[in-house]
Design goal:
By secondary structure, the protein is α/β, with parallel strands linked by helices. About 55% of the residues lie in helices and about 10% in strands. It has a domain at about 1-355 and about 690-1025. α3 (about 25-30) crosses α11, α8 (about 165-175) packs parallel to α35 and α27 packs antiparallel against α37 (about 875-880). Pfam families: SSF.
Length: about 1300
């Protein structure tokens, strides 16, 4: 696949409704501090480009968890990773499904459940029929729709508020620009530290996400893969920033109209702020509300399709293929498509579950993803950086990490004693107008108004009740769940590995390890770097050199492209050396190469037994503002979609489905798992990069980020820093030589992704509810079904190209909101002045209280983990693998990394504009109860701003749905790949490609259903989408990231240490996350003051022929709380539960690294000489020794970098030994990845089967199965 569509697909896969609804809602309620999460994400992406992509792309992984098996030499680790990864992705897709449904409910009153079903149905269709190509190109389309809606929102909102200056002034005056909070209290919801480290953990997890791996793998070269990240990283940052701007604009807008929709009960969820604003702004503009809803749905569709595609690949690669007999390509493709449908159903179930959860989409997503994602991240880090971690340590690290983070997350949800950070004061509600219509023939009361200014001061004797016991733990910021899970996984994995016998260095394959010191600080002397890597030599290149690859080949990624290779083995004891991460020989040569070859007919039968085939006027600052305060009354009413809105919205879904159908009927028609899961590894870098960005920037960014900025200030922006710096499960198996570890990581990764998809599903549903009243369940179902369809039928190509489309829709919606919002507020200067005067520009908070929701430290740390998670995310690996060369894979990361930063920044800007907008109209929608969820701030703002512009609300909702669709499709695609690669394939007999693909497609459907369930669950959560997402992601991703860290940089970590690190990390972070959820004594960071509500207007209309009475009441009331009231501090575990959710990922990461190391030494560390340098990376030495490993194996460096290690043509192998041999890799597989007609033209003789050669591959599952044709095995 080409770099651009892959990068766009990767971008929109994660830029779902969570971004479009959750981020603005987060900004609206807690201020702009959320923007700091970009810092950690930025760092994670940098690390991904520098370290992760060069490690993963040459391995050409289809399943992210395949790395786990290769690294830990344990199939159990791979299955665990696949299972957890799929659960995580399904949960995420469920949240993504919930987003547009929530928005549609806000703007149309359309039942949320129907929205969920619609989106899910669309995603399932084009994902299942179009494959990865359909996913990527629909992502590109949805990218356009999504950003169109966002831009329309920002522009119109700014205009409505009175300009940029007025928008930011209002946000600043009302505490939304709370940029800096360096409080070290972990109970603070957002601090710089929790945001940074939380986003860092999440970023790390995204790297190892199945969608990322799938898109990176779809690029042809390593440079293309890097280009994808180069494009997606700024894309993420920009989209998140735009979402933040949306949150600021939303608050300023409702402050200007003086009617907070949430405080005035106009909306029921903070995540509906943006859709409500869209209906308010564009209510008189036909088509604009529809454009917004379309952008929202595009975001969700992109995420869903990506998720479905990724999970479909997982199901096939990890569950079906290894455990089934060889099958035809057609059957394999059908299985993959069916998995898309099944996963879509699961996503719908998750979305329904999410719909019962309160809170912003950001918080829901963060909590869910941290529970599983952070331990998985710890697992991957253990595999990448800790060679001593064994499979036992790896399994324990993940299990303990999920258990701990899950326990804490549960405590956070159910505990009544936790200390929660209160949101910022809402926008005024004094001009809110509630209307109701009553038919009567007797009397009529037309208007009932109550306006009150109430000031209260607490008694000096009153003290807040502090959490006690476990409530102290449950009070920590949800951002810290990922940190906890990551740290727990690394620590526990290390400890268990040492206890159970660490992996010796000589037992580790350097191809699956990375030395951070060698890679990042090669200028440091060897005597300094060597102790840091425990004396281990990460000589990955040496392994490749030994296999005959030179440096030029490695750099260009040509390791896989060989012709006329003859391997003769005469020694009875000789093992065939590993060629790549999964030990496969893939025939991927041009037609003429096969036709012109002279292949010995007597040598080909070796492959027989195991081969597979593989509108308002601008408000003046003085006169009109005074007029607003004295005369204007803002009527809070439900804006309805016009015909233009529905046209824009429906067209978005249709285009996404059309792309899926196109790729289902074109090319190879998605009949092979190679085409369905990784796009035949020929995707260009640009669409892959876009797909990678939108895969992770879903409705969570479009709704959650603005909501976060609206409520808690701009400090969330710092999360971008850590995220930008970081940028898969089969790697763990290669690194730790443990299949159990790979299964563990795969399970955790899938669990994390499912949770994330559930949150993404919830986002657009929440928005649609806010702007149309469309029932949330229906919205969730719509997004899920759409995503499941085009993911299951179109494969990765459909996912990537729909991501590109949805990327356009998403950013169109974001830009529209930013521009219109800024104009409405009164310009850029006014927008930021409002935000600054109201505390939204709270840029810097360097306090060290871990209980503070957002500080620079927790934002940076969490974003760093988030960024690293992004690198190890199955979607990332899948997209990187879809590129033809290492260069193309790098291009994907180079493009996607800035893409992430830009999108997050746009989400932050949306949050600022949202607050300034509501401050300008002086009617906070959340405070005035205009909306019920903070994540509905942006949709509510859109309906308010674009009420006179037909189609604009529809455009925004379309952009929101595009974001969710992109994320869902990417997630489903990734999970499908994981399920196949880690669970099905290794445990089933060889099957045809048809059956394998069918299983992968069925996986998409199943996990789509799970994501729907998660979305319904998320709908019951409180908080912004940012916090929800962060908590879940960090709880899971932190430990998993720690696992990868151990694998890449710790050669002493063995499989036991790796497993223990991940299990312990997830256990600890899960425990803390559970404590945060259930504990009642935790200390929560209060959100910033809302926008004024003095201009909110509540109306009653009664039909009568008799008489009319109008009554009004206005009162100014000042109350002062007793000075004797004392704030209750959390006690006992509530102190732990009060930490910021952003720290969960850090905790999980550190736990995984530490426990994984300890466990490895206890169980017998891996000796340096036992480690394969190809799986290790030294951060100190830039030119790692793994290159020499490849050279020793006769692979040139240019071949390695172009990702051509596995493409062989005319391979003849002679084995004289009666012994079974290892084959080319750790799982002993030879894979023929060539069109059927090429193979049939090969000059072979199926009758000459050497009795000593057949046993080599007997009973071994492979990636591409035999076609159901006569004498196919003999032909091979």
């Amino acid at each position: 696949m080409a770099v651009l569509p892959v990068a766009i697909s990767l971008l929109v896969s994660f830029e779902s409704s969570i971004m479009m609804l959750g981020t603005p809602a987060e900004i609206y309620r807690y201020g702009i501090q959320w923007i700091w999460s970009n810092v950690g994400f930025f760092i994670a992406n940098l690390l991904a480009v520098k370290v992760m992509v060069p490690l993963l792309h040459p391995l050409k992984l289809t399943s992210a968890n395949e790395y786990l098996e290769l690294r830990f030499k344990s199939h159990a680790v791979r299955l665990l990773g696949t299972s957890l990864g799929m659960i995580n992705y399904v949960l995420y897709m469920g949240i993504v499904l919930y987003g547009p449904a929530l928005a549609l409910e806000a703007v149309t009153n359309f039942p949320i459940y129907y929205s969920i079903l619609i989106v899910a149905f669309a995603a399932v269709i084009y994902t299942s029929i179009g494959g990865i190509k359909a996913v990527i190109w629909t992502d590109v389309f949805q990218f356009v729709v999504m950003f169109s809606g966002i831009l329309a929102f920002i522009i119109k909102g700014t205009i409505e508020i009175g300009g940029v200056a007025n928008t930011w002034k209002i946000a600043n005056e009302n505490g939304r620009l709370n940029w800096f909070n360096f409080d070290l209290d972990p109970r603070t919801r957002h601090t710089f530290w929790s945001l940074f480290f939380g986003s860092l953990v999440r970023g790390i997890f995204l790297v190892f996400n199945q969608s990322s791996v799938q898109r990176i793998s779809s690029t042809p070269t390593l440079n293309d893969a890097k280009k994808v990240l180069y494009f997606t990283t700024p894309g993420f940052l920009v989209t998140i920033f735009l979402a933040v701007i949306e949150g600021v604009i939303a608050y300023s807008y409702y402050h200007v109209i003086r009617c907070d929709p949430l405080a005035s009960k106009t909306i029921r969820n903070s995540n509906q702020i943006v859709p409500a604003m869209v209906m308010s702004m564009f209510g008189n503009t036909p088509g604009m509300p529809g454009l917004f809803i379309a952008s929202l749905f595009s975001a969700s569709l992109s995420t869903l399709s990506s998720g479905l595609s990724s999970m479909s690949a997982l199901v096939w690669q990890d569950f079906v293929r290894p455990h089934t007999k060889p099958m035809s390509e057609f059957k394999a493709t059908v299985i993959a498509k069916m998995s898309v449908v099944c996963l879509g159903c699961l996503t719908i179930a998750v979305a329904f579950m999410v719909s019962t959860i309160g809170g912003t989409l950001v918080q829901i997503t963060g909590t869910v993803l941290s529970t599983i994602g952070s331990p998985l991240s710890g697992l991957y880090l253990l595999g990448c950086f800790c060679p001593w971690v064994n499979s036992k340590g790896a399994i324990f690290s993940v299990v303990s990490g999920v258990a701990i983070v899950g326990w804490i997350a549960t405590g956070m949800s159910v505990s009544k004693g936790i200390k929660r950070t209160p949101p910022l004061p809402p926008a005024p509600t004094d001009m809110c107008f509630q209307s109701s219509v009553i038919n009567s023939s007797d009397w009529m009361t037309t208007t009932s108004m109550f306006s009150a200014n109430v000031t209260s001061d607490p008694s000096v004797f009153a003290e807040p009740v502090e959490p006690e016991g476990l409530d102290q733990l449950y009070s920590i910021s949800y951002l810290l769940l990922g940190v906890i899970g990551l740290v727990n996984s690394i620590v526990s994995g290390t400890i268990v590995s040492f206890i159970t016998g660490r992996t010796k260095p000589e037992d580790s394959d350097p191809r699956y390890l990375i030395s951070l010191t060698d890679e990042l600080f090669p200028f440091l002397p060897e005597w300094f770097r060597k102790p840091i890597r425990c004396g281990y030599n990460y000589d990955r290149m040496k392994v490749y050199e030994e296999k005959g690859y030179d440096e030029k080949d490695l750099k260009q990624g040509k390791i896989n492209n060989f012709a006329n290779i003859t391997i003769t083995v005469q020694s009875d004891k000789h093992d065939l050396e590993k060629v790549n991460g999964v030990g496969e020989i893939i025939i991927d040569a041009p037609d003429e190469s096969v036709e012109e070859s002279e292949q010995p007919t007597s040598k080909t039968p070796l492959l027989e037994s195991g081969i597979d085939h593989q509108e308002r006027e601008p408000i003046a600052q003085n006169d009109e503002e005074e007029s607003l305060q004295t005369n204007a009354i803002h009527e809070l009413k439900v804006q309805n979609f016009g015909v233009a809105d529905y046209i824009v919205f429906v067209l978005t879904i249709i285009v996404s489905l059309a792309i899926g159908i196109y790729y289902a009927l074109s090319g190879g028609r998605q009949k092979t798992t190679s085409e369905f899961l990784v796009g035949n590894r020929k995707m260009s870098f640009l669409p892959v990069a876009i797909s990678l960005v939108v895969s992770f920037e879903s409705s969570i960014m479009m709704l959650g980020t603005p909501a976060e900025i609206y409520q808690n200030g701009i400090q969330w922006f710092w999360a971008d820093i850590g995220f930008f710096c970081a940028n898969v499960f089969s790697y763990l198996e290669l690194r730790f030589k443990s299949h159990a570890l790979r299964l563990l990581a795969t399970s955790i990764g899938m669990l994390d992704y499912v949770m994330y998809m559930g949150i993404v599903l919830f986002g657009p549903a929440l928005a649609l509810e806010a702007v149309t009243g469309f029932p949330m369940p229906y919205s969730i179902l719509i997004v899920a079904v759409a995503s499941v369809i085009y993911t299951s039928i179109g494969g990765l190509k459909a996912v990537i190209w729909t991501d590109v489309f949805q990327f356009t829709v998403m950013f169109t919606g974001i830009f529209a909101v930013i521009i219109k919002g800024t104009i409405h507020v009164g310009g850029i200067s006014k927008t930021w002045n409002i935000a600054n005067e109201n505390g939204r520009l709270n840029w810097f908070n360097f306090e060290f209280d871990p209980r503070t929701r957002h500080t620079f430290w927790n934002l940076f740390g969490s974003s760093l983990i988030r960024g690293l998670l992004f690198s190890f995310n199955q979607s990332s690996v899948q997209r990187i693998s879809s590129t033809p060369t290492v260069s193309a894979a790098k291009k994907v990361m180079y493009l996607s990394a800035p893409g992430f930063v830009i999108t997050i920044f746009m989400g932050v800007v949306e949050g600022i504009i949202a607050y300034s907008y509501y401050h300008t109209i002086r009617c906070d929608p959340l405070e005035s109860k205009g909306i019920r969820n903070s994540n509905q701030i942006i949709p509510a703002m859109i309906m308010s701003m674009f009420e006179d512009i037909p189609g604009m609300p529809g455009l925004f909702i379309a952009s929101l749905f595009s974001a969710s669709l992109s994320t869902l499709s990417s997630g489903l695609s990734s999970i499908s790949a994981q399920m196949w690669q880690d669970f099905v394939r290794p445990h089933t007999k060889p099957m045809s490609e048809f059956r394998a693909t069918l299983i992968a497609k069925l996986t998409v459907v199943v996990f789509g259903c799970i994501a729907v369930a998660v979305a319904f669950l998320v709908s019951t959560f409180g908080g912004t989408l940012i916090q929800i997402t962060g908590t879940i992601n960090y709880a899971i991703g932190g430990p998993l990231l720690g696992l990868y860290f151990l694998g890449c940089f710790c050669p002493w970590v063995n499989a036991k240490g790796a497993i223990f690190s991940c299990v312990s990390g997830m256990a600890i972070v899960g425990w803390i996350a559970a404590g945060m959820t259930v504990s009642k004594g935790i200390k929560k960071t209060a959100p910033l003051p809302p926008a004024p509500t003095d201009m909110c207007f509540q109306s009653s209309v009664v039909n009568s022929s008799e008489w009319m009475t109008t009554s009004m009441f206005s009162a100014n009331v000042t109350t002062y709380p007793s000075v004797f009231v004392k704030h209750m501090e959390p006690q006992g575990l509530d102190q732990l539960y009060s930490i910021s959710y952003t720290l969960l990922g850090v905790i999980g990461f550190l736990n995984s690294v530490i426990t994984g190391t300890i466990a490895s030494f206890i169980t017998g560390r891996t000796k340096p000489e036992e480690s394969d340098p190809r799986y290790l990376i030294s951060l100190v030495v830039q030119k790692t020794t793994s290159i020499r490993v490849y050279k020793e194996k006769e692979f040139s460096e240019i071949d390695l970098k172009q990702g051509k290690i596995r493409n062989f043509a005319n391979v003849s192998i002679v084995v004289s030994s009666e012994e079974n041999h290892k084959g080319i890799n750790s799982v002993g597989e030879f894979i023929v990845d060539e069109p059927e007609e090429l193979l049939l033209r090969s000059q072979t003789d199926g009758n000459n089967v050497s009795p000593s050669s057949a046993p080599l591959l007997q009973g071994v599952g492979s990636m591409y199965e035999e076609q159901e044709t006569t004498d196919r095995a003999g032909t091979l």
